Amino acid sequence: MIALKFVVKKDFVLQDILKSYSHYPPFWKLKKKAWEIDPHFYQILSQNLEALIIEEGLERGVRAGTANVDKNLATLYRTPQFTALFRQAERYGRAVESQWKKNYASSLRHLSDITGIDLSKIDREITIYISHPRLSHGRSYLEEHAITWSHPDEWKNYATVYLWHEIMHHVTVDTRWSPHLMHSLIELACDNELRIRLNGGGAYFKEKGIPMGHRYLVGLNKKLLPDWKKYLRSRDENIYQFEKRMRRKWRGEKLVRMPSALGWWAEWH
Ligand SMILES: [Zn+2]
To answer: N or C: which end of the chain has fewer CB within 10 A?
Structure first.
């Protein structure tokens, strides 16, 4: 069984909000509160060290910024600004968990059919770190068996579809042939085919007028689409066999133009 453990942790929610660029007023008020407690504390926690470097230099500044972290955190966690946002994060966590549970059986069946892998035979426990629903991110930490997740529900069953996307990174990591090809197939399988089956309609690559997927995979997704549609109809291969065949077919072609290692880190989800 693929068991997800949903956790909403103060540390995670706080840092996710402080490092965000969102203009959502309650986030701004929380930032202001952290700043009032200690500007260095804010700069360290928001990962913005620029002012700190200019004012103090890195070595002294970081030391000053990391002093009293425990005390400052305790103060910040008691503020109404944080308490309200954290309660919303907890509520969002419960909503995502209940959506996941409601959809688990049907989405597992659909995705097993799409991938040709019996996902009910896979035993995996993954911890889902949830933050505030006004923030958007999803990232897989494969070695830690963890996923970070938060996103406004742009369309029906949004969290279910993208949690499966992240889970498929965990499921395929040891058996895939090429990370880019498999990532593209995960987008075709989860973001597109699973979404359409689960929601009883929709089109590939766009939902509610919003284009989907990683920009660097768009070209590859389109290149694979005709074979992918045939693969879905023929049902005589699983996703790994299909991936291997596509790898042979497109051998020698540059499938994606990847950004730098940092770009890969920033884009990975
Ligand atoms: Zn991904």
So the answer is: N
